[in-house]
Design goal:
By secondary structure, this protein is of the alpha/beta class. The protein contains 18 helices and 14 strands.
């Protein structure tokens, strides 16, 4: 752990040994300050996974208690259940007075669905915390209202579109300007710090919103010992769905809950242009919040099947509904075309493998067995990605789309990520069959769980001594 200095004690150095030091360590451990972590925790989601890792990272510095945000109560839109959601937050707030510091892992949707619920509940937590740090997993740009488009919708009597524009603006404005204003006011009366995951977001918080005590650090999950243990236990035998794969198969992995912005279709299109011994492993599934009643198949899954020509034959593609005015095509079946009508020659169903939504342990083991891990995301303005951090920590070969998020992430981990343009499946295919641009398995990350631990210690009232990390606070 990074050595820690309390206000009344000398820093404990790593090289100190002996009985006296052991006693000092025990005393230091016993007098740890109490830290409350407020986050989703038991849910199968990225924020919960990070919180579980953060709890381990900080347990030697703080006495940790995690307040699990009940997603059923907080995200329900029924008026009666929303009141129980408010009560849930009030119960958490009543207990915060017994803690030395509070950290809120803020992904807006975990506090509610409506902007009013989110803003109100956030305010209660800010008010109740004796000392607060807020980790922003999403930072919205300060929006400007599109008056021209709004007036155009009104002129056309498209009232639904005009209302949507106004509603979207209000949501973005409240969750950027409104949240920042509330934190600015809180900073005048109590210690409040901000933690973000990119330097761009840190500049935005400081220069646009006028917030002080802003820290930036990429997501960090695994220490060196954990990486060794994960790689030691990782093998294809761990996943029964891979038993039928030939031993010489090259494995490409994509990770995370399904969503159109993940761009998994790009990797499937790239499979058409690389040798058949390359197989795609999809570790993820439909997010529980996106499961719809009576929906026969999730649209994202359907799009993946479409890109891979799964369960499609040539006749079905030819007989797809034509554009208006185009001639219709009829297909006559004879001996020479029968095989084509049975199976499409571009069907990739034997090379695409769905591993499902897995536990944290299987998720990391899945990364470790892959020859290449790909992050083909679209640009959607997100601030961070947990899986790409884990892949680098595990020493995987990482190929990512050139989004602002991943370019910002690379500022912390230089010369470790190979890039391709968003959606360019031909460039991705070329990279997949080329030799790796950077060496893996031997890298040492400058920004890691120790520097992350130092940031959280500083943000929550502990002075740290860390010989590798130079603090870049905006204070």
């Amino acid at each position: 752990m990074a050595s820690v200095e309390f206000e009344t004690s000398r820093p404990l150095l790593r090289h100190e040994t002996g009985i006296g030091t052991a006693r000092r360590r025990a005393a230091l451990f016993a007098e740890r300050p109490r830290l409350a972590l407020i986050s989703s925790y038991s849910e199968l989601c990225g924020i919960a996974s990070y919180t579980r890792s953060l709890e381990k990272q900080l347990s030697e510095l703080f006495e940790i208690h995690v307040f699990d945000l009940n997603q059923y109560l907080l995200r329900n839109t029924h008026s009666r259940v929303r009141k129980f959601g408010d009560r849930h937050i009030h119960e958490i707030c009543r207990e915060l007075k017994d803690f030395d510091a509070v950290n809120l892992q803020l992904e807006y949707g975990t506090l509610g669905r409506s902007v009013g619920d989110i803003y109100r509940r956030f305010g209660w937590i800010v008010r109740a915390a004796p000392r607060l740090s807020v980790t922003f997993h999403t930072v919205f740009d300060t929006p400007s209202f599109d008056y021209a488009r709004w007036l155009q919708a009104l002129v056309r009597l498209n009232l639904a579109e005009a209302a949507r524009l106004r509603r979207d603006f209000r949501r973005s404005h409240v969750l950027s300007v409104g949240i920042a204003k509330r934190l600015r006011r809180a900073q005048r009366v109590k210690p409040v710090t901000i933690i973000v995951h990119t330097r761009r977001d840190a500049w935005h918080m400081k220069y646009v919103h006028g917030l002080r005590r802003v820290y930036d650090h990429p997501l960090s999950f695994l220490n060196a010992a954990e990486v060794v243990e994960i790689r030691r236990n990782a093998s294809r035998r761990r996943f029964p769905l891979l038993d039928a794969l030939p031993t010489e198969a090259k494995l490409i992995g994509v990770f995370g809950f399904f969503g159109r912005y993940k761009g998994f279709e790009t990797v499937i299109r790239a499979l058409h242009h690389i040798p058949p011994d390359h197989h795609l492993l999809i570790f993820g599934g439909v997010h529980p919040n996106e499961i719809k009643a009576h929906q026969p198949i999730d649209p994202t899954v359907a799009a993946l099947f479409e890109a891979g020509f799964v369960d499609t034959n040539v006749a079905e593609r030819i007989r797809a509904i034509p554009a208006p005015g185009t001639p219709t095509v009829s297909v006559a079946v004879d001996g020479s075309t029968r095989d084509l009508l049975i199976e499409h020659p571009k069907d990739l169903s034997r090379r695409i493998h769905f591993l499902g939504a897995t536990s944290d342990e299987d998720f990391l083991a899945g990364m470790a067995i892959c020859d290449t891990v790909v992050f083909p995301y679209l640009e959607v303005g997100q601030s961070a990605s947990g899986p790409i951090s884990q892949a680098l920590e595990l020493g995987c070969r990482v190929i990512a789309s050139r989004t602002h998020t991943f370019l910002q992430f690379a500022k912390y981990h230089q010369d470790m990520i190979e890039y391709f343009d968003i959606g360019n499946h031909l460039e991705l295919a070329a990279r997949l069959v080329a030799r790796p641009q950077y060496e893996q398995h031997v890298r040492s990350l400058y920004y890691n769980v120790e520097t992350n631990q130092a940031i959280y210690a500083k943000a929550n009232g502990l002075r740290t001594k860390h010989d590798r990390y130079r603090e870049r606070s905006s204070a």
